[in-house]
Amino acid sequence: PVLLSYIGPEPAQPRTGGAHPNYVMANERMNLMNMAKLSIKGLIESALNLGRTLDSDYAPLQQFFVVMEHCLKHGLKAKKTFLGQNKSFWGPLELVEKFVPEAGEITASVKDLPGLKTPVGRGRAWLRLALMQKKLSEYMKALINRREILSEFYEANALMMEEEGAIIAGLLVGLNVIDANFCMKGEDLDSQVGVIDFSMYLKDGSSSKGSEGDGQITAILDQKNYVEELNRHLSATVNNLQAKVDALEKSNTKLTEELAVANNRIITLQEDMERVKEESSYILESNRKVNKQDRTADGHALTEARKQLKEETQLRLDVEKELEMQIGMRQEMELAMKMLEKDVCEKQDALVVLRQQLDDLRALKLELSFKLQSSDLGMKQKSELNSRLEEKTSQMAATIKLLEQSEKDLVKQAKTLN
Q1: What whole-number distance in Å separates Cα of residue 416 and Cα of residue 412?
Q2: 67: how many CB neighbours lie within 10 A of its CB?
Q3: Whole-prediction pTM value?
Q4: Of residues 187, 192, 194, 54, the one with CA closest to residue 113
Q5: Within 13 A of 28's CA, how many CA atoms are on the CB side?
Q6: Closest by alpha carbon to 66, among 35, 106, 111, 24?
Q7: What superfamily does domain 22-200 belong to in CATH?
Q8: Which of 18, 29, 109, 193 is the most exposed place for a label (fewest CB within 10 A)?
Q9: Which residues of 118-136 are buried (b: 16+ CB within 10 A; e: fewer)?
Q10: What average pLDDT does the structure give for the chain?
Q11: How large is the C-alpha radius of gyration of the chain?
């Protein structure tokens, strides 16, 4: 990162021949923090005075992103690639979605932008989308709290690893009061050169006005943050109450239905109770009349009735015995029928198996007869071929004899010539 001119109290420099590296890094952190304060303050003041949504052409907003880029690049470790060393703050920003799931939306949007080709361009687009989402402060706080992960990307004395990074993340909360809208399609974020314009922050005037403005802005920011927090709590409370109201309405409807069913059941039971009472009264009255008649009846009628009852009881017992015998015979017949059905089923299965075996034997017979015919035909062809081979062998033997005779004649002629 570019070394900024000194702003703010200067740490004590050791009196040695050269500046100590820790002192240089501390000085850079202090300068970057002060520049971030000025940039955020100027952006908020100008945005409130402007009173409209900011776009990418707004100069204070451009300077804010330049300062944030320098803060994120401070103390960044260089990654070695086959093209050389590369420093990019896109790596740590890409990990924010692991700590804050809401950041996954803007990370995916950045990766889907067609015009971005470099990690630097993706990091710049991510900062702009986070500001539009009004979650830049939240994301930066979540990232700074994971210093064990930041140590993979930053040196130990980098701004993001020290207290200044946390201070800047806290200052970013004030940016929630402004509304920004960026159209990044067609905007060249890969090749932009981030240069801080100090002329925007070098103003004449008394410091008292600045302090009063700071106080007013701080009060406005505090009020806005309080209202936003109160609004979030009220929204959550309203949602919870609405859910409870819905649950109570459903429960009330269910209880009303159950109450109506219970009332109908009570009415039915009352009607049944009245009917039972009437029947009981009628039965009691009938029993009284019967008892009265029994008392006045003579003993002969009672004896006849008892005798008839005994006969009917005996007849009933005989009928029950006969019925039990019939039931036993019926059960035996059903058991015999089941056994016959089982035997028939087994025989049918055996018949099916035998038919299948018969079909298999027929097929095997046909196959064997076909193979036998093929074998006879093959034997016939082989015998014909053997005859032709014997004939050809005889011809070749005769040819060999002729050649031997010719050779002998040639030998004789050669001897004669010699």
Answers
A1: 6
A2: 23
A3: 0.47
A4: 187
A5: 22
A6: 35
A7: RUN domain (1.20.58.900)
A8: 193
A9: ebbbbbbbbbbbbbbebbb
A10: 82
A11: 55
